[in-house]
Amino acid sequence: MYARRVRAGLRGWGGVGAMALLCALAVAFALLLPHTQDQPAAGAGGRGGAHGTLAKADACADPEAQSPSPAAVEGPAIAAVKKRGYLSVGVDQNSFRWGYRDPNSTAETVELEGFDIDLARRIARELLGSPDRIRFKAIPTNQRVPAIRSGQVDMVVRTMTITCARLKDVAFSAPYFLTGQQVLAPKSSPVEGYDDTLAGKRLCSAAGSTAYEKLAADRASGNLPASADISTTVPNQLDCLVRLQLGQVDAVVTDSALAASQAAQDPTVELKGERFTTEYYGVAMKKDATDLVRRVNRILEDYRRDGGWKASYDKWLSPTLGRDSESATPPTPRYK
Predict the structure, then answer these.
(1) Whole-prediction pTM value?
(2) Strand runs labelled E in 32-101
């Protein structure tokens, strides 16, 4: 039976008030896969509201424009998926409105839902004829690349930024979402954004994330106050919100789209300042799965054109990001 519904034993977290459950889940997610982390890469500096592109490795430019052109041809990667009969997709299960389990669901088994889940199901439908022919695997932030390279999943659809450093290890589709890094902190905090108000503050980011890469690069270049403590890293972005709620850190640095969802869950925190990088999410796959990458790009073209992308955005993300934000329109693809 193909898993549209996920076993009840893997439960989602039940809201910001349930701290014990959140912490327990954070540990559980970290144990889902071997503790191998993505390799960090250098990022570009800059403070305040200035936007920059992250992870310019080996003079690589425009990583979001390195995907092959769309095509409907079938090769060995797609053939393997069809022979197996289902698509294996690495996702998040605790990012509100992206990939999560609704704690208010009355069903015996709680479905994963959200913007990334909609996209994963659309890919399964186009490849295999049904959105139900899919198996989800919960992948911590710092295990996304290892999960693809080891063959544990066919692809990762999990708010994963396309970077030059990651392109050395995996292939990406064309971008399907525009975002950037932003600071999240308590409303009462003196932190004003990604600037000198972070001096002496304890900052949290997810291990293997572009947020940590940016923090490390800016500390090294002097674009982040030297007294800012960036030593707290966690397996999943949500773990940072837990640390913030417990008073163990002073601010969180994460993607603006994820930060907005976390702020929607906890009325005591808010986004500070503007986003200070420009990043794009892509579907990650094996480097040699060119036929699958090209087919996903074909699916993304149709998803944008037929209104599927917009309908999913309006359902899941417009309540936190708004209908008129930069992110409310799908990025225009550029192919290599």
Answers:
(1) 0.81
(2) 87-91, 94-95, 99-101
